[in-house]
């Protein structure tokens, strides 16, 4: 019997290509260089003597051969993932507790859907969110008041392990008739005379301040709000400007309540990591939850990029 040339990695690559519509973004998603991804697909195309997708189209269009492999990927990969999960549950047990602490005010846009996917797959794991936004969620891990923390920095600390989740673009927003709406890219100096509307958190938890403004000696006057929608409303009524994740403001941009602009020539990026106690870092359900977060977020949120440790 001839050994099949089609491997799971090929199917994962094709699904990443379908989801992103771009060879470069798909390569990021599966942790390959663009040339390595192209070579991987060319091996299949040479073997079957047919192209799998049309080059130089945006978004990418698949040929009938590519569509057939995509169909196989959609059928097979979920079954493989389910089998792997069953094996992990057999070996490690399927019960446990996963209390989540967050420091990010916009986390719930992607966290709740990920929890919804996780629950039926690990029904014996008690999944809950520690109430409120936490300035130091890692301390909750170490005191056993939480089991999983979502943080913006993987700061080395004894007894704590990290997994990268994703990076995302932070954009500046202002009212459509604000003078800054006429600038295609905002620089640090553009914030100097503005009121900056932020969440009520320390400066070192705000990437705009930490990475862009304070290094330039710029510390604008502030106004705080706990709620993203309130920040957007204040910006729309010209009470100030703000910097928020693109995914959080996209619905309001589409309705023309506010406009968004990149911050800096190399657009401002923020990062999110999962933190856990070191002794829990091999627990199957914790690792699976990290995988689900990445999969669901990349599938549903715009302007994300792969984050490596």
TrEMBL record:
<keyword id="KW-0678">Repressor</keyword>
<keyword id="KW-0805">Transcription regulation</keyword>
<keyword id="KW-0010">Activator</keyword>
<dbReference type="GO" id="GO:0005737">
    <property type="term" value="C:cytoplasm"/>
</dbReference>
<feature type="domain" description="HTH lysR-type">
    <location>
        <begin position="6"/>
        <end position="63"/>
    </location>
</feature>
<keyword id="KW-0028">Amino-acid biosynthesis</keyword>
<dbReference type="Pfam" id="PF00126">
    <property type="entry name" value="HTH_1"/>
</dbReference>
<dbReference type="InterPro" id="IPR036390">
    <property type="entry name" value="WH_DNA-bd_sf"/>
</dbReference>
<comment type="similarity">
    <text>Belongs to the LysR transcriptional regulatory family.</text>
</comment>
<dbReference type="Pfam" id="PF03466">
    <property type="entry name" value="LysR_substrate"/>
</dbReference>
<protein>
    <recommendedName>
        <fullName>HTH-type transcriptional regulator MetR</fullName>
    </recommendedName>
</protein>
<dbReference type="InterPro" id="IPR037406">
    <property type="entry name" value="MetR_PBP2"/>
</dbReference>
<keyword id="KW-0804">Transcription</keyword>
<dbReference type="InterPro" id="IPR000847">
    <property type="entry name" value="LysR_HTH_N"/>
</dbReference>
<dbReference type="GO" id="GO:0009086">
    <property type="term" value="P:methionine biosynthetic process"/>
</dbReference>
<dbReference type="InterPro" id="IPR005119">
    <property type="entry name" value="LysR_subst-bd"/>
</dbReference>
<keyword id="KW-0486">Methionine biosynthesis</keyword>
<keyword id="KW-0238">DNA-binding</keyword>
<dbReference type="InterPro" id="IPR036388">
    <property type="entry name" value="WH-like_DNA-bd_sf"/>
</dbReference>
<dbReference type="GO" id="GO:0003700">
    <property type="term" value="F:DNA-binding transcription factor activity"/>
</dbReference>
<keyword id="KW-0963">Cytoplasm</keyword>
<dbReference type="GO" id="GO:0000976">
    <property type="term" value="F:transcription cis-regulatory region binding"/>
</dbReference>
């Amino acid at each position: 019997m001839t050994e099949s040339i089609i491997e799971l990695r090929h199917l994962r690559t094709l699904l990443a290509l379908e989801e992103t519509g771009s060879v470069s973004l798909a390569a990021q998603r599966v942790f390959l260089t663009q040339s390595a991804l192209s070579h991987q697909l060319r091996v299949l195309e040479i073997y079957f003597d047919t192209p799998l997708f049309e080059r130089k189209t945006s978004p990418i269009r698949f040929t009938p051969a590519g569509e057939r492999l995509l169909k196989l990927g959609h059928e097979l990969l979920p079954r493989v993932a389910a089998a792997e999960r069953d094996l992990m549950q057999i070996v490690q047990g399927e019960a446990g507790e996963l209390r989540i602490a967050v420091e990010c005010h916009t986390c719930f846009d992607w966290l709740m859907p990920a929890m919804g996917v996780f629950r039926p797959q690990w029904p014996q794991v008690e999944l809950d969110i520690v109430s409120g936004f936490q300035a130091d969620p890692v301390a909750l891990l170490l005191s056993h008041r939480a089991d999983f923390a979502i943080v913006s920095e993987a700061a080395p600390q004894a007894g704590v392990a990290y997994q990268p989740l994703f990076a995302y673009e932070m954009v500046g927003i202002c009212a459509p008739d604000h003078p800054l709406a006429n600038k295609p890219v905002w620089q640090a100096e553009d914030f100097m005379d503005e009121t900056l509307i932020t969440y009520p958190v320390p400066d070192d938890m705000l990437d705009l301040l930490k990475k862009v403004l304070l290094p330039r000696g710029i510390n604008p006057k502030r106004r705080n709000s706990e709620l993203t929608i309130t920040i957007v409303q204040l910006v729309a009524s010209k009470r100030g400007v703000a910097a928020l994740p693109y995914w959080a403001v996209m619905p309001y941009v589409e309705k023309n309540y506010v406009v968004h602009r990149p911050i800096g020539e190399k657009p401002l990026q923020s990062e999110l990591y999962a933190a856990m106690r070191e002794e829990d870092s091999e627990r199957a359900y914790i690792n699976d939850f990290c995988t689900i977060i990445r999969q669901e977020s990349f599938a549903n949120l715009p302007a994300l990029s792969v984050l490596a440790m």
